[in-house]
Amino acid sequence: KLEHEDEMQFAVPVGLEITGRRIVRLIDAGSVGPTEPKAFVFTNCSEDQRAVSLRLFEGNFRYLPVRLEREDLSVKSLENPRLVWSHTVTWSETETRGTMRFVFFVNLNEDSDVCLRLTRIRSSDVS
Q1: Which residues pair with 58 in a beta bridge?
Q2: Of 72, 80, 111, 116, which has fewest CB within 10 angstroms of its CB?
Q3: Contact 94/50 with Cβ under 8 angstroms?
């Protein structure tokens, strides 16, 4: 974050990795809080899947898909974003494809801190 005229601004964009090693931008460089939450739904893509991994990056996303196979994702470079948060949601039972749904919310609070929330949507909650 950068301090600018009594406001804390983000110096670089923040994004969430989605299918195919693509990163969707959540917070633009220069953003200040508070912001409205953005929501993204993740689901299981196969019957055998027992986890969903979420990874939040900061940096340059102009090269898509992002090269995430390098050894140290915590180091940012001109071509690559830096991993700032990672979480894997697991479940023990086999579930029908598309029935394990999670909503990931992200926003900036009034201090321009990134706020994350992950909620499971039960199949009975979806019409």
Answers
A1: 14, 82
A2: 72
A3: yes
